[in-house]
Structures are given as structure tokens and as C-alpha cells.
Amino acid sequence: MPVVCLGLNHKSAPLAVRERVVFSAERLDPALAALAARPGVREAAVVSTCNRTEIYAVLAPEATPAILRRWLESEQALAGDELAAHLYSLEGREAIHHLLRVASGLDSLVLGEPQILGQAKLAYHSAARAGLLGQILQRLFQHAFSVAKRVRTETDIGAHPVSVAYAAVTLARQIFGQLEACQGLLIGAGEMIELTARHFHEQGLRGLVVANRSLERAQRVAGFCDGHGIGLDALEDQVARADIIVACTGSDTPVLTRETLKRVFKSRRHQPLFMVDLGVPRDIEPSVETLPDVYLYTVDDLRGVIEQSRRSRAAAADDAEAIIENQTDAFMDWMRTLNAVGAIRRYRQHAERQRDEALAQARRQLAAGHTPEAVIEQLGHRLTRKLLHTPTMGLREAAREGDARVIRDSHRLLGLDDDEERDTDE
């Protein structure tokens, strides 16, 4: 039962495709319930972010990753040919290695960004609620979290505050220079917007407004950076005053449209507007970029800024890759032990039955008045004879059949020392 991974990410698919495949937090649980009902799916978890949607699964022997592709197409109402060119499928060691890289931030658009670990944990908890975490994926995700922690603490991959949010702020600083004279507007109130707010605050942005459907959440995020929060009903007025807008919500439809911006721009008198859309699906209508004095960037447009940080982290990435290679092998070793679990359990149960029978007989002898010394001596002989009977008979059968491999492997399985045996023979 190998682990499989089916998915797409920022390297295999453009934003226009990724935004059609992403699962919002509200949709993920019912989608997983539908996946759990699919025959052949034994375990599964879905990591879905602005830069990737990946399904990790353990399938029945007769099932193939195609069952995961059909589920994804069904849930997102997509035709097969719309995804085929962008999907990748990994199995066994490759899938395990990939998840460890993802959780550690090595497969992210921003090398080493820490947000993906939290998103992987959300995938883990969603899978648990759906009853889709079994022995293998539960162990694998816990292992991935542990490896990500090691990468973060044992290398310099997280030495600098680099993320998509940080890249957006860096780009704004490159365009405006000092930000003390700029007014910022953040749309949304999730982790990415909170991180963006903190970065802008550190750069000395003159004023910051956070807009969100939930006024309470907007005010909470704004409170981290001496800004103030508003509801989306007041959004248009704030757009008219803003120099910088960063949007990242969970909305399935744009929260800022071209028509809204056209109305707003009548009062702006050609004042430039820098906009960054970090949402997937997009929060700002793409046609907005055709308006004069608007400079609109998406997640994919930040690659140039991000590449600079990638080069500075290259040495740390090499150290992280070495940890991940080693820990992938460690998990594969554990997976291989699962093949012997049934045999080990049966052999242990057999030995425990032999022990219980020998103890019962020893107690009867003690009750009959036999001396403890005699009973203990007989107990030792009886246990030795019973426990050695089955492997001894197997070795004799192998010798009769000339099966040298079984005899050779028995030395390793039984912990025998070849040198010691040769000394005895001499």
C-alpha cells in the first residue's frame, strides 16, 4: 500500500488554473466526506493553498491515482482535459519525499516560507475529521511536521522574514521608496493579511486600514499595527484614499471589480494605485490592470522578488535537503516494517501461549508439593524446548532441501554470530 500524491502547484500550473482547483476551508470538509465515500480510498488528506492543491492518499491494491483525479474533477466541476497537462502523480518514496519538502517550505514559491506548515496541519486535522487518517498517513504527517521543525531549527532556511506577504511589501518599497507617506488598505483578515500588516507596520507605513466581512476580525488584525478595521460595506471609500492595496480573502468571487475602480478613480486625479492580489481564487478582477494609473500584481508576478531570497537561502536549502533525504529513508524503513507486523504479532502470540501453558503446569507442580528449585528448572527446560521447536524444525527442513539462503538468513534473524559458530566447529 504505497503512499500516492496527485496534485498541481505553482510550477506545474498557472494562477488561472490553480484558482479553479483550490478548496476553501468551508468546502474542504464536505469534499473530503465525498472522497471518503469513494471505493478504493483507504486514507487521504488534501493540502490546498494559493500555490498548490495536492491529494495524499493510501489506496486499495486494485485502485489507481485516477480515482483521485476523477474526484478532483467532480468536486471542482472541471473537465479532464483542463487538468491533465498540469497534474503530477507521485508514488512511494517520491510522494513521501515530496510531502517532507512541502512541509519544510522547500517546494514553496518563497523558499523556506513558514506558512505552508500551518496549512499542512490544517489538512491533517481536516482529514482526521473526515475519518481519513489511518496508520500510514497519520504517521507520515506527524513525521513531516517533525522534519519541518528540524529544518527550521537546524538550518538557516528561516533566518530572514521571507514570505509572499514579505515579497509584496518589498515590491511596494521598491516602487514607492520610503513608505512613511503611503496609505495602505488590506482586504481580508487571515494569516497572510496579518503577516502583511506586520511587515508594513515595520516599514513605517503612514496609515493602515483592514477591511473584512467580519468587522471584529478586521479590527483584531488592525490592532496589531496601530491601524483600524472596517467592514466591506465601507471598502469603496477607503479604496479612494489608498496608495497600496493588498487583498487575500477566501472569497470565490472578486471583492474588487473594474467597475468599482472606475467609479473610485473619478476622484483620485490620476494618483497611482499599487495593488497586490494574493488571493486564489483572485480577489481583484484581472481586467482592473487595464485601467490607467493602476499597477496590479498577482502571486505569480512576485517571482522576481522571491528569486532574490531564494539565492540567498541556497546554502541553507542544501542543508535542509540533506535532512529530508535522511528522514525520507527513515520513514521508508518504517513502512517496510509494516510488512512484518502480522508475522511478528502471530509469533509473539504463539510464544505467549507457550509461556502461559508452561506457567500453568509449573503452578500445578508447586501445588502438588514439588520443590521450587525443581519446578523452576523444569520450567526453563520446557520453555526452551517449546520456543525452539518451530525454528529448529524449519532449519532442518531447509537443510534437507539444500536451501542455503534460509540457513544463511537465519543467522541474521536469530542474532547468531558466524565467528562464534566457526570457533565451536573447530
Please describe what this structure looks like.
The structure is a single chain. The protein has helices spanning 15-21, 25-36, 66-75, 80-83, 93-103, 115-129, 135-154, 164-176, 191-202, 215-223, 235-241, 258-265, 303-312, 314-367, 372-400, 404-413, 418-425, and strands spanning 3-9, 41-48, 52-59, 88-91, 183-187, 207-212, 228-231, 244-247, 273-277, 294-298. It is α/β, with parallel strands linked by helices and 426 residues long. It folds into three domains: 3-159, Glutamyl-tRNA reductase, N-terminal domain (Beta Polymerase, domain 2), CATH 3.30.460.30; 164-303, 3-Layer(aba) Sandwich (Rossmann fold), CATH 3.40.50; 344-410, no CATH class. The strands form two sheets. The protein has a six-stranded parallel β-sheet, with helices on both faces. A four-stranded antiparallel β-sheet has the order 2-3-1-4, with helices on both faces. Strand 5, helix 9 (191-202) and strand 6 form a beta-alpha-beta unit. Helix 5 (93-103) packs across helix 7 (135-154), helix 7 (135-154) packs across helix 14 (314-367) and helix 8 runs parallel beside helix 9. The protein is elongated. NADP(+) binds at residues 188-193. The record marks 98 as: Important for activity.
